[in-house]
Amino acid sequence: MTYQLNFPALWPSLPELLAGLLTTLGLTALATVGGIALGICGAAIRCGNRPVLRALWGGYVEVIRNTPFVVQLFFIVFGLPGLGLKLTAGEAALLAMLVNLGAYSTEIIRAGIQATPKGQWEAGRVLGLSRAQTFLRVVLPPSLKRIYPALVSQCIIVMLGSSVVSQVSYEELTFAANLIQSRTFLSFEVYLVTTLCYLLLSIVMRHVLMALGRRVFGGVAA
């Protein structure tokens, strides 16, 4: 039995696929900005001198890094309502991606900070800067430059993981693909196009973020 490819049959569904793609882009953009900001705060806490805060944030990092993303998503969607916190599918998806990227970026950024020579901290004190000012103006910029490629890779991983949020009926790219497949039964064509969309997203996202890094940091290793 020979299977006949029928890509033209997908044309009527192209708007749905593009809408899902745009939703994935928006979700990824918000999660990337928020997750990196959360990671910077977490790295500052983990490198700080307050043991209780370090332990609490360290616990959060360990929980997130050692549990599946889909379980984290289901906990937010189905578990939090038991505590009286009800979120829409979009809010839950964004929160899950923020929390996930925040934990991983905390450790990536912390590694960059720990590789920073102690002389930079001392230089900040000599200049009369507070610890917070030294961290933000002296230590953080070269630390981010050092670990930027790894941070970009983690952001792309989170973007690819966003496909899981289709399980809670959030209408992103994978949800759109599943819907189209259930209506057309063109499994091979639909998922091949979806695969190419994710591949294109990954390539474009890496190039855009690396270009942004070169502009901000004045040169970042690929």
Automatic annotation (TrEMBL):
Q: Give the UniProt record's GO annotations in the biological process aspect.
A: amino acid transport
Known InterPro entries for this protein?
AA_ABC_transptr_permease_3TM (IPR010065), ArtM/GltK/GlnP/TcyL/YhdX-like (IPR043429), MetI-like (IPR000515), MetI-like_sf (IPR035906)
A Pfam family (short name) is: BPD_transp_1
Q: How does it sit in the membrane?
A: Multi-pass membrane protein
What do the Gene Ontology cellular component annotations say?
ATP-binding cassette (ABC) transporter complex
Boundaries of every ABC transmembrane type-1 domain copy = 21-209
Membrane-crossing residue ranges in chain numbering: 20-45, 147-170, 190-209
GO molecular function: any one? transmembrane transporter activity
Keyword Transmembrane belongs to the record = yes
Please give the coiled-coil regions recorded for this protein: none
Is Membrane set as a keyword in this record? yes
Q: Which PANTHER family match?
A: ABC TRANSPORTER PERMEASE PROTEIN, MEMBRANE COMPONENT OF AMINO ACID ABC TRANSPORTER
Would you tell me the protein name for this molecule?
Amino acid ABC transporter permease
What organism does this protein naturally occur in?
Chimaeribacter arupi
